[in-house]
Amino acid sequence: MKTEIIIGEDSTGKPAVIDMEELLATRLLVQGNSGSGKSHLLRRLLEESAKMVQQIVVDPEGDFTSLADLFPHVVIDGSAHSVAEIEALAKRVREHRVSVVLALEGLDVEQQIRCAAQFLGALFDSPRDYWFPALVVVDEAQMFAPSVSGEISEETRRLSLNAMTNLMCRGRKRGLAGIVATQRLAKLAKNVAAEASNFLMGRTFLDIDMIRAADLLGMERRQAEQIRDLERGSFLGLGPAITRRPLSIRIGSTRSGPKSRAGGLMPLPDAGPEAMEALLHAELEKDVATAADTAPPSPPDQLSRHMESLNVEIDTAPSTSTSDAMEDVSDQAESVLNQMADDPANAYLSSANLFQSFLTRCRKVGMIAPRMDMSEFRRRFAFALARIDSLEEVDQTQAKRLAASVEDDILAPYLVILRSAFEGAGSPDEDELAAAYGTSSPGRIKRLLDHLESLGLIVIREEYGGGRTVMVPGIAEAAT
């Protein structure tokens, strides 16, 4: 069976090839500034190898969904599925060897990162029987494996970085060959970039990126200037699957293309200034009214309506009635949190989605949510999810004390363990912990327990018979 594909041609006009069998074993890193032809390179590689190997594409911008027009790729819309569904789809992708494009353009940045992390994690954790060879292409990899914290939460960054590290460091034994593409090498986590043995470096202008690219290509730093002079669609290649010496490659043509093209020039409208002004202002009131109808009411308006519904007179002086009203608001908020915790699907949603759902539910019952930030909401929802309010009051107090310093992302499963310990019911089973942690992967639950033990929050004692005992310091042990 032929294992090589033609990716383009070198400076002498000879075909430049990539050995796909070697690529599956050694992984690939693609780098290039916006406009350098990075997406075009990935498209060429995917088109030429589409009939040779299963392909899984993580596509944050919707650039590769058009592959489904020419090849039997299935487009998975990340915005249309829950976390549980994304993980289940990933397992089926590995089981049935379906080439897919995970389209994430319908999500905001943090949701894109979390969705991709859950999908990659489920691919990695799939049963051994499904470890078939597959290319896993991650475009804009600096989003999913950032070198430093950005605007996303630390929990999301850690989740995504762990998934990307598993893909590049440990994926080969599971048949997963990572191909990561980035605009900025300096923004990509070094432990992810370092695992690639093949490189295709496109045009870049920043010194720090040129130096890192030259180092990866084994070039002297004074030679890094030639990376700045590369033309659009030209890349310097190196690696066991490409060439043993740095080689300039001009990427060949593709048959498919992006769904939309934002680049290039196009004629401006012919209408004059008066006509354009009329077009901008025509029926503007309708758009304003529609926006006002869909926008959430401001907190003061919410509070005023809620106080009126309670027949409480609002004045500038504090009163017992006002205090009682605010306590009632807090009670209603707790009720909303408990209702959300009753829905098993909510445990698999992102914190941002949960918070928006919480605010929407509060508005529907005509009340204002207690003033809280995202972190406080996550912690209160974790307590509701773990049903800590079912404990005796003294146990609730101790549970809050023990959980005070626990990180938000592991709080819910830790509270489930605490509740079971207080109730003397033994440790919760893996399904209960998985629901609290928002995953269906047994491997992640094992890693979670190991992490909790490393933090000193629990103690695990393995038994010869295959069972184990989980103990919480200060609380009686519980056997599983």
For the record, the CATH architecture of the largest domain stands as: 3-Layer(aba) Sandwich
Low-confidence stretches: 294-323, 476-480
Mean pLDDT, nearest integer?
A: 80
Rounded radius of gyration (Å): 27 Å
What's the number of extended β-strand segments?
14
The end-to-end span amounts to: 51 Å
Tally of helical segments: 20
Strand order of the largest sheet: 2-1-11-10-9-3-8-7-4-6-5
Biggest beta sheet attributes: 11 strands, mixed
Per CATH, the superfamily of the largest domain is P-loop containing nucleotide triphosphate hydrolases
Helical fraction: 40-55%
| Proportion of residues in β-strands | 5-15%
Task: Quickly give the structural class.
Answer: alpha/beta
What can you tell me about this protein's structure?
- By secondary structure, the protein is of the alpha/beta class.
- The chain folds into two domains: 4-251, P-loop containing nucleotide triphosphate hydrolases (Rossmann fold, 3-Layer(aba) Sandwich), CATH 3.40.50.300; 299-479, no CATH class.
- It has helices at residues 20-26, 38-49, 67-70, 83-96, 109-124, 141-144, 154-170, 190-193, 207-217, 225-228, 273-281, 284-294, 299-309, 320-342, 351-364, 374-385, 393-403, 408-423, 430-437, 442-454, and strands at residues 4-10, 15-19, 28-31, 54-59, 74-77, 100-103, 134-138, 176-182, 198-201, 234-239, 243-251, 459-462, 468-471, 478-479.
- Strand 5 (74-77), helix 4 and strand 6 (100-103) form a beta-alpha-beta unit.
- Helix 5 (109-124) runs parallel beside helix 7 (154-170).
- The two termini are 51 Å apart.
- The relative contact order is 0.10.
- The model is unreliable at 294-323 and 476-480 (pLDDT under 50).
